[in-house]
Design goal:
Strand content: 25-35%
Distance between the termini: 73 Å
Radius of gyration: 38 Å
Structural class: alpha+beta
Shape: elongated
Oligomer: single chain
Largest sheet: 5 strands, antiparallel
Number of strands: 11
Amino acid sequence: MYAVVKTGGKQYRVAVGDKLKVESLDAQEGDKVTLDNVLMIGDGDSVEVGTPTLDKTVEATVLSNGRGKKLRIVKFRRRQNSRTRTGHRQNYTELEITAIGGKAAAKKAAPKKAAAPKKESAPKKAAPKAAKAEGADDLSKISGVGPVIVGKLEGLGITTFQQIADFTAEDIERIDGELNFKGRIERDEWVKQATEFAKG
């Protein structure tokens, strides 16, 4: 929901929660101000346009009163030996819009509810890792086997030293082809090493 209001000879498009600086108003910090010159209010597809203004109001809270940046004004007339230099700082009042047409902002409680399921999902992810570790051997003890290769072997259901020790020539050829090991199983003597680890 938004509104177009007129104050200090200027028009502003505002929504609830917006902070803006307007021409100086006769109000102190913390005061509540009502802007009566509402030219238009839009809420989704419905738009109300005043002729010239609406009966509704926009409420705001004064955050601060201050002065803007200094503007340099230089007047120069050539060949007249006439130069004047002045400065100007415009006073302003900073407002925060609190309600439009009597409607304030809804409280934002949704993000807190959305954060709760993430905490619950963490234990679910940790459970499968613990299940794998119970019956599986640490295949990375075999020379030439790293975490990536361990993951590939687990994908084929190979998780123990005994399974590798029982490899036949056909098994080695099949696994070598599927995982693109390029003869690594025989070259690094996985079967021999796995047999020793399986014996303990």
